[in-house]
Task: inverse folding
């Protein structure tokens, strides 16, 4: 399903995106993030680009032009042979911000974790590279992130935020259940379990990466840390238990069935040892989240919502939450 040219194609399109987005007047630099930036791509990698604007005013003025370039590139890539996602969403930095972040050090970076843009931005940028070899400020910033991303104060701040999100989601699940909205309660239960999973991963000094592969990666990280039973419990509470998901795999819509097949070939193309069942679980769990957040019109029996064991699962995760270790 993927030719031997997939790496060459990703490299060409990354260069094309960097050239065209970098030409927007208000853009001072670019971070090539995600798996492509880290040098760990797979055939279905998105191209993650984080603009570094000259100023906040430049961002306000030119974000629309960046979005136009993004849309034109994605349309052209789809029409010219194979579709490709160019992720140029809401995460950005300014030139002043990245210079100040380096000056403030890890302790200062920890204080920025209260800002959603920075909280998610440093994880996407971690291990990445500048869009241009001559972009010294962005390169310096990325070098700083490589050292500071897992510094103790940054990890502590991120763990606290993930735990806060877990507690908030659990409260929202209880409230939705009390009002009879069992679908919403199920979504919040699963968000709680996902947040607790990231409390663990952060505390172990690791990160998950691609959403379409994250449950298998989480299970492997947990195995290394002797926490496989806990990982299995969180997967079950998040609707990502492989055996349970396998019972509804035949219910997925055609677009997701196609994604499942493509993902398995892509993962095996980079030597990943994953079973068809776990690959299907990863895709179904990931897109259950995407659908609940962005396309509720695509929900169906394949999402297993509402959770038939909702009350028991809410009680279980409430008991589990205090025991999830923090660094």
Result:
């Amino acid at each position: 399903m993927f030719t031997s040219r997939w790496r060459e194609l990703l490299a060409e399109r990354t260069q094309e995106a960097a050239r065209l987005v970098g030409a927007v007047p208000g853009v001072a630099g670019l971070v090539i993030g995600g798996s492509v930036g880290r040098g760990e791509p797979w055939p279905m990698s998105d191209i993650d680009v984080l603009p570094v604007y000259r100023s906040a005013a430049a961002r306000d003025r030119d974000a629309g032009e960046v979005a136009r370039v993004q849309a034109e590139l994605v349309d052209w890539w789809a029409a010219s042979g194979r579709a490709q996602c160019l992720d140029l969403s809401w995460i950005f930095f300014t030139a002043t911000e990245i210079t100040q972040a380096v000056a403030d050090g890890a302790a200062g970076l920890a204080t920025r974790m209260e800002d959603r843009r920075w909280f998610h931005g440093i994880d996407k940028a971690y291990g990445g590279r500048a869009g241009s070899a001559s972009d010294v400020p962005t390169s310096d910033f990325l070098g700083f992130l490589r050292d500071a991303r897992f510094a103790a104060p940054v990890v502590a701040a991120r763990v606290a935020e993930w735990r806060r999100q877990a507690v908030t989601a659990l409260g929202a699940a209880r409230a939705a259940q009390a009002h009879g909205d069992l679908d919403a309660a199920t979504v919040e239960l699963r968000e709680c379990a996902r947040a607790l999973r990231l409390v663990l991963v952060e505390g172990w000094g690791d990160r998950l990466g691609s959403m379409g592969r994250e449950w298998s990666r989480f299970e492997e990280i947990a195995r290394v840390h002797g926490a496989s039973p806990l990982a299995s419990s969180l997967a079950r509470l998040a609707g990502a238990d492989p055996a349970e998901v396998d019972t509804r795999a035949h219910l997925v819509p055609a677009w997701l069935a196609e994604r499942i097949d493509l993902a398995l070939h892509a993962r095996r193309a980079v030597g990943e040892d994953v079973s068809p069942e776990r690959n299907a679980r990863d895709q179904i769990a990931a897109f259950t989240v995407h659908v609940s957040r962005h396309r509720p019109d695509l929900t169906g029996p394949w999402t297993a919502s509402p959770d038939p064991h909702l009350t028991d699962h809410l009680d279980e995760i409430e008991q589990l939450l205090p025991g999830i270790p923090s660094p």
User: Anything to note?
Assistant: The chain has a mean pLDDT of 96. The CA atoms of residues 17 and 73 lie 7 Å apart. Residues 153-323 form one domain.
